[in-house]
Amino acid sequence: MKVSNCQICGSKDIQMQESFNGSAAIIEWVCQEGHRITRWYSQPTLNRGVLSGDFLISATTVLSGNNFGKMKLWADMLQLKFPSASKFFRIQWTYLVPSVDRYWETHLQDLFQSLRGKDVVILGDGRNDSPGHSAQYCSYSVMDNETKKVIMLKTVDKRETARKSVAMEKVALKACLEDLLQNQVNITKLVTDGHLGIAAMMRTDYSTLPKIKHSHDIWHVAKNLGKNYLR
Do 142 and 153 meet the contact criterion of CB atoms below 8 Å apart? Predict the structure, then answer.
């Protein structure tokens, strides 16, 4: 970019200054009086001044299942410019999370529509963020046995279960079942692991209407047999 003289003071002593904003390089041409003549960004600017590189870095980090801390460490080791933590989380909560939520809700409604009028057998299992009784979060997934598609997913915080990690799986499953029933999915059978709280809940809450037959999957049954009797 050719810059001849300052349009404000007429100075021909023009200096080029380089700086960075997140992952973008910025070059400014400034005269000796401090007047900014023009500015160039290495990345296009999107809505509300968000730089496209910062947006893409944030999006790929979230959607690949990674996290900011690891990616920032990787960038620092390679001496790459990276968006700040505040900018990353602002982009995440302003753009990425709402977009994912909207897509997920649309996807779920399509699934529910395809299951209406059918007898549905579902498979459920939970996954904690850490083993044992110290887990803080539990994500519970429910899959349709016929199509092998995940039709519901709920995440429960330990604070929702009086800080009892062992109760999170039952609470998350109940939330899944209530949402499925509310969306007119006719559940005839549920297959889970041998969680005692889930077994008790199914006997008391779902033994009449809506009546859902509960059974344990064979893998967990065989695992428990081997653990208890084949030592």
Answer: yes
Parallel/antiparallel/unpaired status of strands 150-157 and 137-144? antiparallel
Decide the pairing of beta strands 137-144 and 119-128: antiparallel
Domain span(s) for CATH 3.30.420.10 in the chain: 116-229
> What is the per-residue pLDDT across 176-207, written as a single tens digit (0 to 9) for each?
999 999 999 999 999 999 889 999 999 999 98
3-class SS at 223? helix
One-letter amino acid for residue 81 of the chain: K
Phi, psi of 14 (to 5 degrees): -105, 130
Q: Regarding the domain with residue range 116-229, which homologous superfamily does it belong to in the CATH classification? A: Ribonuclease H-like superfamily/Ribonuclease H (3.30.420.10)
The partner residues of 18 in beta bridges, in order of sequence, read 27
Closest CA to 24 of 39, 43, 40, 49: 43
Number of H helices, E strands in the chain: 7, 8
Radius of gyration of the chain (CA): 27
Say how far apart CA 211 and CA 131 lie, in whole Å. 32
Cα angle value 138/142/145 (rounded, 5°): 150
pTM of the model: 0.74
1-48: per-residue pLDDT in tens? Answer: 555 676 667 666 677 788 999 999 998 877 766 677 778 899 999 988
pLDDT average, residue stretch 152-161: 95
**How many Å apart are CA 52 and CA 44, to the nearest integer?**
6
Residue 229's contacts (CB-CB under 8 Å, 6 or more residues apart) are none
**88 and 68 Cβ atoms separated by less than 8 Å:** yes
